[in-house]
Design goal:
Elements (H helix, E strand, L loop, with lengths): L4 H14 L12 H8 L3 H13 L3 E4 L3 E4 L4 H4 L2 H8 L4 H22 L2 H17 L7 H15 L4 H9 L1 H14 L5 H13 L3 H36 L1
Antiparallel strand pairs: 1-2
């Protein structure tokens, strides 16, 4: 599968750091310079940089620019991390992982979230609701992805937060695929139910609804994959 423009920028920055051209403490190229060097949009450049900042591999200094973090970059940029950032994982594999981790994340989120985080989830839900019938926009799946990321980052657990940050690229690819293959389905209603459980501070219900949401997605994805396989087989038989 072709890499996204944002992933291409991640690869570019990765190579600069691993090769030693950008060492810890080095000021990296500006967004405009990265755009010219990679040939992608400034939005894609900004997305890649923000992901690396969130993972504490890059750091921003107000009014001064973006720098390689003063950490052991070689230990952070290992083959596993590089693979997670830039590889394609099939949707069933992603959903199997999500079924394990996200019900636990939402339980912790209920325990520690504040009004601002709940307001962010409400905004994601409004964005999803407004765009659920438009198959040509990426606004729905991006809001969907952001809803889950906010929960993952709001667990008050440093390890889980780091994992969810690293996996954001993988999750966004999944949500884009799901949006194209199965559409919004009952996603808006399911997210609304999860949000209501969160607002009620009912972590058991929130966890159960999250698990059911992911399981329903798994069923729909598997049906879509089976349908595509049957269609391909039918075409091959007629050729």
């Amino acid at each position: 599968m072709k890499k996204s423009a944002s992933d291409c920028v991640l690869d570019y920055i990765y190579d600069k750091i691993i090769s030693g051209q950008w060492t810890p403490g080095t000021k990296i190229a500006t967004e405009t310079e990265l755009q010219a060097e990679t040939g992608v949009s400034k939005t894609s450049v900004r997305s890649a940089v923000e992901k690396l900042v969130a993972m504490e591999i890059l750091t921003k200094r107000q009014g001064d620019g973006t720098y390689v973090a003063d950490v052991s970059v070689s230990s952070m940029f290992n083959p596993l991390l590089s693979s997670l950032l830039t590889s394609y994982y099939d949707p069933v594999t992603v959903l199997a992982f999500r079924e394990i981790i996200e019900p636990a994340c939402v339980e912790l989120f209920v325990e520690y979230c504040d009004d601002e985080q709940i307001a962010q989830l409400e905004e994601c839900l409004r964005e999803m609701d407004a765009n659920q019938y438009d198959a040509d926009t990426d606004l729905f799946y991006k809001a969907d992805n952001r809803f889950h990321l906010i929960i993952g980052l709001g667990t008050n657990n440093a390890i889980l937060s780091k994992i969810m940050n690293i996996l954001d690229t993988v999750m966004e690819k999944y949500h884009k695929y799901a949006n194209k293959s199965i559409g919004a389905k009952t996603g808006v209603a399911e997210h609304a139910g999860i949000l209501e459980a969160i607002k009620s501070r009912d972590k058991e219900l929130a966890s159960l609804l999250m698990k059911r949401h992911i399981q329903r997605s798994m069923r729909d994805i598997n049906e879509a994959i089976a349908a595509d396989a049957a269609l391909t087989a039918s075409k091959n038989e007629t050729e």
